[in-house]
Amino acid sequence: MKKKDFKLNEFVAIYTNSDLENFGLGYVLAINDEFLLIQSVDPQAELDGVTLYDIDDIVLIERGTNYCKKIEHLMKIKGIKPKEYFINQNDYISLLLDKSKEEHGLINVQLLGDAKCVVFGIVKEFSKEIKKDLKETNRN
After folding, report:
1. What mean pLDDT comes out for the span 44-71?
2. Which residue has the higher pLDDT, 36 or 127?
3. CA atoms of 63 and 86, how far apart (whole Å)
4. Which residue has the higher pLDDT, 137 or 92?
5. What are phi and psi of 2, to 5 degrees?
6. Does the predicted TM-score (pTM) go above 0.90?
7. What is each CA distance from 108 to 76, 89, 111, in whole angstroms?
8. Alpha-carbon torsion 132, 8, 2, 50, what sign?
9. Measured between alpha carbons, how far is residue 18 from residues 2, 3, 22, 124 in Å?
10. Is the sign of the CA dihedral 85, 45, 27, 49 positive or negative?
């Protein structure tokens, strides 16, 4: 996928594996040449944090499907609106690590593109080297 394939604030379903059984759903918050950042929505139409996707891992984008429309309609019925995010940097990894550290928020990192290789916790500290290592680990 390419940056031009996405529009800010658009509601999309994102598939990262070719079996098309699992996908992420949400509103596009930010996009650059490497990553897509979405405000995730769960199957109960509740806001579910922020998800960072590697653009190269995305195999399919769906928009305007019946499922997408139903989830958005359910959000409207429940009175759930997307949160306002002001993303003023292009380094989304640092943004998420900083946010977890500042807000003591839980972060979940899937390494090596494998759902079985997951690390989660609250960030207390991080360095530029950790950020660089995360990017390189996910690329290999």
Report:
1. 92
2. 36
3. 24
4. 92
5. -125, 160
6. no
7. 28, 21, 10
8. positive
9. 17, 20, 9, 35
10. positive
Provide the H-helix boundaries in the chain.
Answer: 66-78, 92-103, 128-139
Unique residue bearing structure tokens 């290789």: 117
pLDDT of residue 140: 47
Question: Which has the closest alpha carbon to 135: 2, 37, 35?
Answer: 35
Six-digit token string for 101: 């550290």
For residue 88 the two structure tokens come to: 């003023």
Strands 35-41, 24-31: pairing is antiparallel
Q: Is 103 exposed, middle or buried (0-12, 13-18, 19+ CB in 10 A)?
A: exposed
pLDDT reading at 75 higher than 50: yes
- One-letter amino acid at 103 equals E
Nearest alpha-carbon partner for 100 in 49, 27, 26: 49
What's the whole-number mean pLDDT along residues 126-133? 62
What pLDDT score does 85 carry?
80
Which residues are registered as beta bridge partners of 27?
11, 39
Check: CB of residue 37 under 8 Å from CB of residue 87. yes
Quick check: 123 and 108 in contact, CB under 8 A?
A: no
